[in-house]
């Protein structure tokens, strides 16, 4: 399933401080290409811009077109290794990323820009009172969530739903990363072990999404006009909760 553009991606593009972050986690990268993207703020920023553009295109196309686009993307990514032989690999990657972003945005099925209703200013509220449904007990899932985030190849943007396993010692979660991929994670409640981390399969029967917990972000998800900022037990901002996936 393809979800709406993740608000974390938008926030990163529009005002993140410090070093630029690509669409994947740089912590344990091994290939020359990934290391080179992570070592250059301009290239990392372009990688994130491309991820945003691709997610918008993918959610607007048919399943057949999505498969073709994914195959095309893999071939393009592999072709970037040719920049290793250039005198200025960063300049080479910059040019190729800019061309790729332009190609994605000029695709016939790329959706037009939509105006977004500005959310009303709301006061942050404790998770226990602002949450609804499963999110009221969000604090119980934090250790398992941290463990699942460590397993993800790309930063996690939102938690669609979480539930206790049949033995009550495990927590199941539906997560969406910055590249719009949905994952299913099952971890021990205390976070010391991840039992499963895999992409969600279309035929899987999973709990329905909602309410949705959006991780971090100084501003609410741009398409979630009624999202509420929540704070932890120490009064620190802990993300946003929306009544639906947006």
What does the model show?
The protein folds into two domains: 7-105; 125-242, no CATH class. The protein is built from seven helices and eight strands; from the N terminus they run H-H-H-H-H-E-H-H-E-E-E-E-E-E-E. It has helices at 7-15, 32-39, 41-58, 63-79, 89-105, 127-130, 142-151; strands at residues 125-126, 156-164, 170-177, 182-188, 194-199, 212-214, 228-231, 237-242. It has an eight-stranded mixed beta sheet with strand order 1-7-8-6-2-3-4-5.
Q: Kindly state the mean pLDDT as a whole number?
A: 80
Poorly predicted regions are: 1-18, 115-119
- Domains (count): 2
State the distance separating the first and last CA atoms: 13 Å
Helices and strands: which structural class? Answer: alpha+beta
Question: What form results from the Cα inertia axes?
Answer: globular
Along the chain, the helix and strand elements come as HHHHHEHHEEEEEEE
- Spatial strand sequence of the major β-sheet: 1-7-8-6-2-3-4-5
DSSP E strands, number? 8
CA-based gyration radius: 19 Å
Residues in β-strands, percent? 15-25%
Largest beta-sheet details: 8 strands, mixed
TL;DR?
The chain is 34% helix and 18% strand. The protein is built from seven helices and eight strands. The longest helix has 18 residues, at 41-58.
Topology (SSEs and partners):
Elements: H1 7-15, H2 32-39, H3 41-58, H4 63-79, H5 89-105, E1 125-126, H6 127-130, H7 142-151, E2 156-164, E3 170-177, E4 182-188, E5 194-199, E6 212-214, E7 228-231, E8 237-242
Parallel strand pairs: 1-7
Antiparallel strand pairs: 2-3, 2-6, 3-4, 4-5, 6-8, 7-8
Helix pairs in contact: 1-3, 2-3, 3-5
């Amino acid at each position: 399933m393809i979800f709406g553009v993740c608000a974390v991606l938008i926030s990163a593009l529009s005002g993140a401080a410090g070093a630029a972050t690509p669409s994947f986690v740089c912590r344990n990268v091994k290939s020359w290409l990934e290391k080179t993207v992570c070592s250059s703020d301009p290239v990392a920023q372009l990688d994130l811009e491309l991820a945003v553009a691709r997610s918008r295109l993918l959610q607007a196309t048919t399943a057949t077109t999505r498969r073709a686009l994914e195959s095309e993307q893999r071939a393009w990514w592999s072709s970037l290794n040719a920049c290793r032989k250039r005198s200025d690999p960063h300049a080479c990657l910059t040019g190729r990323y800019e061309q790729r972003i332009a190609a994605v945005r000029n695709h016939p099925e790329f959706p037009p820009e939509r105006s977004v209703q500005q959310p009303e200013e709301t006061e942050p509220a404790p998770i226990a009172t602002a949450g609804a449904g499963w999110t009221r007990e969000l604090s119980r899932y934090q250790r398992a969530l941290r463990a699942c985030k460590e397993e993800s190849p790309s930063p996690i943007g939102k938690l669609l739903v979480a539930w206790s396993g049949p033995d009550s010692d495990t927590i199941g979660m539906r997560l969406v990363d910055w590249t719009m991929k949905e994952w299913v994670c099952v971890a021990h409640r205390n976070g010391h072990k991840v039992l499963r981390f895999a992409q969600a399969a279309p035929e899987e029967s999973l709990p329905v999404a909602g309410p949705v917990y959006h991780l971090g972000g100084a501003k609410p998800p741009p398409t979630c006009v009624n999202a509420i900022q929540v704070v932890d037990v120490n009064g620190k901002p802990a993300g946003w909760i929306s009544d639906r996936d947006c």
